[in-house]
Every structure is written in C-alpha cells, then in structure tokens.
Amino acid sequence: MGTTVGRRPINKYNSTGAGGAKAIRRIESLYERYHRPEYLSMDPLCWVRRFAGGPQPTVEAAALCAAVFSYGRVEQILRHLDRIESLTGRDLAAFTAETSFRRKQRLFSGCCHRFNDGTDLALLFEVIGRLQRRSRTLERLF
User: Fold this and answer.
1) How does pLDDT run across 75-106, given as a tens digit for each residue?
2) What is the pLDDT of residues 118-137, one digit of tens each?
C-alpha cells in the first residue's frame, strides 16, 4: 500500500510523491499545534465560532461573511463583524431568508468596511439567502 497521512492515502491524485507526503504531514502537524481557541483570538474565525452548534445555514453564512471581510486590520474586521451581528441577530440564516432586500439596504446603510459599504453588505446577505434557498446549504454548492 502507498504512503498515508493519518488515515488518508497519498497517491498520484493528491500528492507530488514522497515530498508531498512530507509536506502534508508538516502541515497537519502545524494544524494540530495551532488550531486551538487560544490562537484564534485575533482571527476572524473566533467570530464564526460564536455560531458553532447553531443551524448549518447560519454557521455557513457567518463563515462566508467573515471570509469576505477578512482583509485589513484584524481589530477592524472583528468590529465590523460584531456590528453585523448586532444588526442581524444571531440567526443569520433566518435574517437572510426573512428580510427583504430593501430592509437589508436600510439596515446596513451606515455600515462601511474599508471600501465596502452597506449596499455591498445587503447584496452579500441577499445572495447568501438566495443560494441557501436554492440548495439549502452553501456546502452543497462546492
């Protein structure tokens, strides 16, 4: 049998050979070492973790939102994400599904993150809502 990393086999489809297997082992080692809550305090993922255990569509909406706005200073990103949560509430999936686009525009009219404004945020949540209505979860799209 070929090389494995954990329980996953490394083969010609997912590795560049022995060097690739070594790199994967190194990456997984770093992941195990640093993928802990204490290292996430200055990462937008800490905001997403607030939604853990909630409905999958809400967690997905939070993760996508955090990813979209993860540019610039971390402190500013986290303030912006907190502001979004204060406007939408904890159930982001319900917000995307039940709030009209016009209401989203009004709600986010004063929001700004670097060069993105409230209209961009309203559009983001409108698109998330439409995608979730179409496929129930964002995961199914990938």
Assistant:
1) 899 999 999 999 999 999 999 999 999 999 99
2) 999 999 999 999 998 888 88
pLDDT at residue number 5: 54
Q: Which phi and psi (to 5°) does residue 9 adopt?
A: -75, 145
List the alpha helices (DSSP H) in the chain: 18-34, 45-49, 56-68, 74-88, 92-98, 101-107, 118-135
Q: How many CB atoms are located within 10 Å of the residue 72 CB? A: 12
CA–CA distance, 105 with 119 (Å, rounded to integer)? 6
DSSP code of 9? E
Instruction: Confirm if 101 and 126 have CB atoms less than 8 A apart.
Output: yes
| Residue pointed to by tokens 């979209």 | 68
Token pair listed for 34: 């640093």
Q: How far is CA 17 from the centre of its chain?
A: 31
- What's the angle, vertex CA 53, arms to CA 41 and CA 39, rounded to 5? 15
Among 80, 72, 63, 79, residue whose Cα is nearest residue 121:
80
Say if strands 8-9 and 4-5 run parallel, antiparallel, or are unpaired: antiparallel
Please, which residues have CB within 8 angstroms of residue 52's CB and are 6 or more apart in sequence? 59
Tokens of 105: 């525009």
